[in-house]
Queue: 4 jobs
Job 1
Amino acid sequence: MTELVLRSKAHWGYDADFIEACREELTLRPADLTPDRVFVAERSGNAVGIAALSRDLPPTGALNLLYVDPSAIGHGVGGRLFAHACAIARAAGFARLTIDADPHAEPFYLSRGAVRIGETPSGSIPGRMLPLLAVDLGDRAPAEP
């Protein structure tokens, strides 16, 4: 799953040094993959996307990650993962999710109802700031596309 995440990140044109600098932060460990908060999209038995919610307690949680394999970008996988994560969060009592977004992914989240609420420092690249977004789940989670 870590390699899927790194391939997805590299899709945006980041060079090998940048991806290597992000490797530690983006490495998924067994403890990160709890079945009640991690969702994997598959196509023909192969993982093509992953999303994960934080282990926070309601009412505010975080979408910790959402990555789609480059072969599946543009085919609705990310939208379905996002909608599913929001629905699960809403059912668990969350009213809001925050998202530390890659700048290239910000338009994706904005198109699904998220709003920019600030910036947050990158966990991998000193001095780099990332868009901090939030999506209010309200009475229903964002719909699948």
Job 2
Amino acid sequence: MSGGPELAALAVVLRGDAVLMVQRGKAPDRGLWGFPGGRVEPGETIARAVIRELAEETGVSATAGPVLGETEVIRRDDGRVTHHYTLIAVACAYGTGEPVAGDDAADARWVPLDDVFDAKLPMSDGVARLLSLALARRAAA
């Protein structure tokens, strides 16, 4: 890896008692479940990137809302940094569509909230924390 961390956006989409999640098909989190998202392209806003990545990975449409928080992913191999992402989580209001895995997602589905908090699926770092922030925001609305 060269340069600094890459900026990426995550879509946190709630629908009833479920959250939209994807299983990563590629490194660094291959096989783990997390929120749909990906790199922010040069000249692209976080809001635009999150909606684009959501559609590419799941086929679901939504409206971008406020930023919920951030998390970092740093992976090393033999002491060398192989991946470094700064991930910005955005609350998104569900629009239309049912999840179908696309782009670099191996699977996409609505996951019951309890399954996330009970770790019934192997999760990427920070998923439960960001989901808690989204639920608190929804409760306050």
Job 3
Amino acid sequence: MSARSTRRPQMTLDDFEALERGAPETVTLEFIAGKLEVKPVPDGDHGAIFMWLLRQCMQQRPELDLHPEQGLVVEHYRAGRARPDGVLAPVAHFAGQGEWADPTGALMVVEVTSHDADTDRHDRWEKRDGYAAVDIPVYLLIDRQSCTVAVHSDPSGGSYRESPSFPYGETVKIPDPVGITLRTEALKDYAA
């Protein structure tokens, strides 16, 4: 058992949800690996990257929606709460599920890194592990610091077995069940 899984959480899940409900609209809170996380407010380049990806998904898979900031119940024993930058799922999949949806049926989660000190731990490790733990088929990480696109896929036993990374400019094939191809040349315009 890893050190992360044996640590005591900072608070209970009920306490987190009460705190999150009372947070101002300008603050996005997550509960990852038993810790309260404050998600940075996205900048203009972050938003432009998300819109680029949204257009790619809509053009290639119009029967799917890329939901921005959809809250998901994640991690072992459903003890975490995350708001990925995007969740790819069938049209209207999350209708009626409320603020923290069951991740079952989500095909892909997306994170675009922010320029903050916690990005390495938060997006590259803890969230990745949380998404794998609930068997989300694909975790797409658009990493603005390293100018790469990482495609984590084939979850098994709480981790992703495949994790190739591609520099901006390469063509990136997202495996099934997503089945789209990203031409990432445009991402160079938003390099850090």
Job 4
Amino acid sequence: MADIFDVIADPTRREILRVLLDRSSDATHAAGDISVSEIVATLELSQPTVSKHLKVLREAGLVAVREEGQHRYYRLDSRPLESVEDWIIPFTASDDDLQLSVQLAQETRDFASSVGKVLADTRHRVTSATERVTPKKWRRD
């Protein structure tokens, strides 16, 4: 599989992704599918050119295809772009964003620690109470 950055580096593929994104956000097309011929008409490119780029996008997991007879309908799958987003965020985040991220991480750790302590204390209390009221012959020692 090609590197996601190589895939989206091509301007024609980015235009195809834009068309697919527009279709996916269009309320009149619930499924978000678009045919190859519609992409060809929208971008005013040849069908072989569009098909070649759709193949690259499909291999990268950026589009899903549905076959209906001889027609192919494509829709955007943006999940592979999350790795691009993860890579870009540190370059675009402000100092305030980074401080907020650190603060949230610390709050999450504090919360998890508190929950862990409560669960451990509850388990200890339940075990102690069970041992006091359960006859020895029924205990698993």
